[in-house]
Design goal:
Elements (H helix, E strand, L loop, with lengths): L2 H9 L6 E4 L2 E2 L5 E5 L2 E6 L6 E9 L3 E11 L25 H20 L5 E2 L13 E9 L4 E5 L19 H4 L2 H9 L9 E6 L4 E6 L6 H14 L2 E5 L6 E5 L6 E5 L4 E5 L9 H15 L6 E5 L7 H5 L4 E6 L2 H13 L5 E5 L19 E4 L7 H4 L9 E6 L2 H13 L4 E8 L9 E7 L1
Parallel strand pairs: 4-6, 7-21, 11-12, 16-17, 16-19, 17-18, 19-20
Antiparallel strand pairs: 1-5, 2-3, 3-4, 5-6, 8-9, 8-10, 10-11, 12-13, 14-15, 20-22, 21-22
Helix pairs in contact: 2-10, 4-5
Length: 447
């Protein structure tokens, strides 16, 4: 859509504010009201509140809006910690108390199980929780030069917009980066190619904080010196990225340590690159691993299958507690790194395989012909429906399913329970992303 068409469309939205009573909350945490026979979803409004809002999107039956004034506040409302909360898309629930956030996520989770999967858990687990602030160890920050302000903006994008949020700090990012937003902005603003740096990849391990500066033009020596001084001043590891995410040039130090995180309970150290997928919240990740291993009830005779294994986040610690782990992942580079991590940890009772787990070709894969009595699933948002039916013949006694999307977990749970003869014995949410609408969950299926 052209800028002219966007402006014309924006002009059609009513300018005046509208007063409504908020009736309930959507699964995304938006207030729901009804105006002129339309359902209106109001950002930053809570159930039971009376608010003034402005429309941000308007169609025949549904509208979207943003609360601009709270006339009668809910007792669940709190003051957001972040000054940029009203605009920033990094968070959407900071105006809710932590308990209210958990209640919303648990309600969403249970409704999906009931309505999509037609299942319910025999035992509802208490939410798995951790630190509310500074928890995010992985992020991709947008960078944009705003000519009108003659400033570099660094941060998450504004809610529902391509603009970068104007903020001085980020409360959910690890403190080593979250409190450096202003310095990053000023640093890039002083560079010759300031308009050609679109993003900064953030990766925080147990040993160091890494920033990867993506640059679209060759970086002049003077600009390299500016970043070098930033890295030294704040004890950061800085890479430059001109090509693909794996094509990194170390700027400081010249030979950086490899990033890693430890899983002390299982005597495992996982090494990774800044671009590798790892869980953003290490505290919840450690507790989640312990929870999954406990629910699998692993013993020295178990043959375990780990599907969507990544670089071995679950596979490696599980191998410490069973006879053998077969780990399967769709990306060859992650399979290679999983094998390397197993070798570094002297874990020999594990094997890694590459396979497209959404393809029918897995039916003839050699690892599919083996017998496994316990299975761990940790799929992406699209879920594990393509592989679940192949698991039926394995007749595994226990399956633990870790999910980042409650709708696809509910769909797959319906198949496991209503078609494949499993019981959903335990299920609950994990607050991997406090102050956001993301719902992570874990479910235990018993034959």
């Amino acid at each position: 859509m052209s800028d002219k068409r966007r402006r014309r469309r924006a002009k059609r939205l009513p300018e005046e504010t509208v007063q409504v009573d908020i009736e309930s909350l959507s699964a995304e945490g938006r207030g729901i009201a009804h105006v002129d026979d339309r359902t209106v979803f109001v950002d930053q409004a809570l159930a039971g509140e009376t608010v003034l809002f402005k429309y941000t999107k308007l169609s025949k039956n549904i509208a979207e809006a943003r609360a601009v004034e709270i006339l009668k506040a809910s007792p669940d409302r709190i003051e957001p910690k972040c000054k940029a909360f009203e605009l920033c898309g990094g968070c959407s629930l900071q105006h809710m108390g932590p308990e209210t956030q958990l209640e919303l996520k648990q309600k969403t989770f249970l409704e999906h199980l009931e309505h999509i999967g037609k299942v319910s858990a025999e035992n509802l687990l208490p939410p798995l929780t951790g630190a509310l602030w500074g928890y995010r160890h992985k992020a991709r920050l947008s960078v944009r030069y705003v000519r009108k302000k003659d400033r570099i903006m660094v941060g998450f994008r504004e809610r529902g917009s391509s603009f970068v949020t104007d903020t001085e700090q980020c409360e959910i990012l690890h403190a080593s980066v979250g409190y450096l937003i202003t310095e990053l902005s000023e640093c890039i603003g002083s560079m010759e190619i300031k308009e050609r740096i679109p993003q900064i990849e953030v990766a925080v391990g147990d040993n160091q904080t890494v920033l990867v500066f993506r640059h679209l033009d060759p970086m002049p020596a003077a600009d390299r010196k500016i970043l070098l001084e930033l890295a030294k001043q704040h004890e950061l590891v800085v890479y430059l990225q001109a090509g693909s995410p794996d094509e990194l040039e170390a700027l400081y130090p010249a030979q950086p340590e490899v990033l890693y995180y430890k899983l002390p309970k299982h005597n495992v150290r996982v090494e990774f690159q800044p671009s590798d997928f790892t869980q953003v919240n290490p505290e919840i990740n450690r507790n989640m691993l312990d929870c999954a291993i406990n629910f699998l009830e692993l013993n020295e005779n178990d043959q375990v299958l780990d599907l969507f294994c990544g670089l071995g986040n679950f596979s490696l610690p599980m191998a410490r507690h069973c006879a053998h782990v077969t780990a399967v992942e769709g990306a060859e580079v992650m399979v290679k790194k999983g094998r390397e991590n197993a070798a570094r940890n002297n874990i020999e009772n594990i094997e890694f395989h590459m396979a497209d787990l959404y393809s029918d070709e897995i039916a003839t894969a050699p690892w599919m012909k083996k017998k496994y009595n316990k299975i761990l699933l940790d799929p992406p948002r699209s879920g594990a429906d393509a592989v679940i039916r192949y698991l039926a013949k394995m007749d595994a006694e226990r399956i633990v399913y870790v999910s980042c999307h409650p709708a696809t977990l509910a769909r797959d749970a319906g198949v496991l329970v209503n078609e494949l003869g499993y019981r959903l014995s335990d299920a609950g949410i994990m607050d991997m992303f406090p102050h956001t609408r993301h719902v992570e969950s874990i479910a235990v299926f018993v034959k």
